[in-house]
């Protein structure tokens, strides 16, 4: 299938363990409003009219995914993830040749508004990719190893990086491959592009697009999901 400029592919790395959730199973399989967090994430992405396919990177010995109702849907390709996030994303990009530009989204972000996806997709065909982000609002402190404040950091021009992150597939694949080959620490897709000398556009996103990391995040995510469902219902 030739690459498409109208429809896009998303890569979702989900091979991690998520130890901070204090759970016996990875956080993406915890229940949230009647489905797993992962199901909410994937179903929300594929419901966007311009996302045609999703590449899901799982741990090679994942025993949970095949028990889900979406395990065999045609719009989803499941692949083996790697040791680190960057490895999983790179594996996904190698399977995403149907799309010139690719979204990479966290499996633990189920509350992504479609309006934010629209803002990212508007970058397609331009000279730079971009990421969803929110400006830092709180006072930022730099601490030492004992948890004592070293200094207050200037928060002007500081942003919280979110996902999806959206780049030309070939550019991102090249940046990740080279960074991994040189043992560069890659924390997100944008950091690989930055290291390779590319430009990354910050696209202000909705703060509801939280990453579920701690147990207390589940209640907030459920609230946002209910709000999103109500908003979409009113738009019909």
TrEMBL record:
<comment type="pathway">
    <text>Isoprenoid biosynthesis; isopentenyl diphosphate biosynthesis via DXP pathway; isopentenyl diphosphate from 1-deoxy-D-xylulose 5-phosphate: step 2/6.</text>
</comment>
<feature type="site" description="Transition state stabilizer">
    <location>
        <position position="20"/>
    </location>
</feature>
<dbReference type="InterPro" id="IPR050088">
    <property type="entry name" value="IspD/TarI_cytidylyltransf_bact"/>
</dbReference>
<dbReference type="GO" id="GO:0050518">
    <property type="term" value="F:2-C-methyl-D-erythritol 4-phosphate cytidylyltransferase activity"/>
</dbReference>
<keyword id="KW-0808">Transferase</keyword>
<feature type="site" description="Positions MEP for the nucleophilic attack">
    <location>
        <position position="211"/>
    </location>
</feature>
<dbReference type="Pfam" id="PF01128">
    <property type="entry name" value="IspD"/>
</dbReference>
<protein>
    <recommendedName>
        <fullName>2-C-methyl-D-erythritol 4-phosphate cytidylyltransferase</fullName>
        <ecNumber>2.7.7.60</ecNumber>
    </recommendedName>
</protein>
<dbReference type="GO" id="GO:0019288">
    <property type="term" value="P:isopentenyl diphosphate biosynthetic process, methylerythritol 4-phosphate pathway"/>
</dbReference>
<feature type="site" description="Transition state stabilizer">
    <location>
        <position position="27"/>
    </location>
</feature>
<comment type="similarity">
    <text>Belongs to the IspD/TarI cytidylyltransferase family. IspD subfamily.</text>
</comment>
<comment type="function">
    <text>Catalyzes the formation of 4-diphosphocytidyl-2-C-methyl-D-erythritol from CTP and 2-C-methyl-D-erythritol 4-phosphate (MEP).</text>
</comment>
<feature type="site" description="Positions MEP for the nucleophilic attack">
    <location>
        <position position="155"/>
    </location>
</feature>
<keyword id="KW-0414">Isoprene biosynthesis</keyword>
<dbReference type="InterPro" id="IPR034683">
    <property type="entry name" value="IspD/TarI"/>
</dbReference>
<dbReference type="InterPro" id="IPR001228">
    <property type="entry name" value="IspD"/>
</dbReference>
<keyword id="KW-0548">Nucleotidyltransferase</keyword>
<dbReference type="InterPro" id="IPR018294">
    <property type="entry name" value="ISPD_synthase_CS"/>
</dbReference>
<dbReference type="InterPro" id="IPR029044">
    <property type="entry name" value="Nucleotide-diphossugar_trans"/>
</dbReference>
